[in-house]
């Protein structure tokens, strides 16, 4: 289990993490989501013990991570960019991992490589970005981690390789009860596999919980107004975004109440119904980019 408790971090007088707290249980997948610059990679570097937090603490099974080789040996980390020694052959990188990690499982690597098909005789510089990602995923699974941290793990993977990766990851979590944190903009796949979600913006957590709860809080309504929707409605605190196709307005709202729906009806409508909303639509609605009235200049807490 990973516990992040009241973690703050500043660099050059800029607060990049602000009182961040959440827990990842064994055998679960937590998605770390937010716009560019939200603090996701900074948090990952702190969780993996690369950076020391200014305040707060991070533990794995109640043991601190920073400068703790015993705990770090149990953490697999697949960064967004993999920087292995270019001149090394893949088999030499494998040998290095066998030397550094006492629990490295060569048989497990061979099993995974029967799926991902990386030539161990090739040098790192000869591998594509996608194959470097495959290699990093395999190596980090083969140290038999208790915790797995993944930063954009499907970057550079083709659709077949993406499916293979998700299948392997789900099997890893189910069979070994691994605790997983994934930071990714691939929200379609994240929605299918994650158990819980942490939304970040400007170094702070704006939501943490499961996806079903998030969808109860953020809803998408399709509405047909008799005239134009009033500005007071569009600018109300419940509204995240508004878009229009033909005569139908699609309004994404947070913490919608009966009072809000009654207010909408009072403006004159011929149709109002709730429709399914995806995690990607929630992300776009909250962080901006959808429709004329999308909110992009303020941090929104759900």
Automatic annotation (TrEMBL):
Give the UniProt family note. Belongs to the ABC transporter superfamily.
* Database matches in InterPro entries: AAA+_ATPase, ABC_transporter-like_ATP-bd, ABC_transporter_ATP-binding, P-loop_NTPase
ABC transporter domain: residues covered: 2-227
| UniProt-recorded name of the protein | ABC transporter related protein
Q: Which GO terms describe its molecular function?
A: ATP binding; ATP hydrolysis activity
Keywords from UniProt, A to Z, are: ATP-binding, Nucleotide-binding, Transport
Source species, please? Pseudobacteroides cellulosolvens ATCC 35603 = DSM 2933
């Amino acid at each position: 289990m990973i516990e992040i408790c009241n973690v703050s971090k500043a660099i050059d007088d800029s607060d990049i993490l602000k009182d961040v707290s959440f827990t990842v249980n064994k055998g679960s997948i937590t998605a770390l989501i937010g716009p560019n610059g939200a603090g996701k990679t900074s948090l990952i570097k702190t969780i993996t013990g690369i950076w020391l937090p200014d305040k707060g603490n991070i533990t794995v099974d109640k043991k601190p991570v920073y400068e703790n080789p015993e705990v770090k040996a149990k953490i697999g980390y697949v960064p967004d960019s993999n920087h292995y020694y270019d001149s090394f052959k893949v088999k030499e990188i494998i040998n290095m991992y066998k030397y550094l990690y006492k629990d490295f499982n060569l048989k497990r690597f061979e099993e995974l490589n029967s799926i991902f098909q990386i030539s161990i005789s090739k040098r790192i510089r000869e591998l594509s970005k996608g194959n470097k990602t495959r290699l990093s995923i395999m190596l980090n699974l083969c140290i038999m981690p208790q915790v797995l941290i993944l930063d954009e793990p499907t970057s550079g993977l083709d659709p077949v390789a993406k499916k293979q990766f998700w299948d392997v990851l789900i099997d890893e979590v189910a069979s070994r009860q691994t605790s997983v944190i994934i930071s990714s903009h691939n929200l379609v796949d994240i929605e299918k596999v994650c158990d819980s979600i942490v939304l970040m913006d400007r170094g702070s957590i704006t939501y943490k919980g499961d996806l079903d709860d998030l969808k109860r809080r953020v809803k998408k309504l399709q509405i047909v107004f008799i005239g134009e929707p009033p500005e007071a409605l569009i600018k109300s605190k419940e509204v995240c975004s508004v878009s229009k196709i033909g005569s139908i307005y699609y309004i994404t709202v947070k913490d919608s109440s009966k009072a809000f729906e009654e207010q909408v009806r009072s403006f004159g409508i011929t149709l109002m119904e709730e429709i399914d909303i995806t995690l990607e639509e929630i992300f776009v609605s909250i962080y901006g980019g959808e429709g004329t009235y999308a909110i992009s200049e303020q941090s929104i807490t759900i």
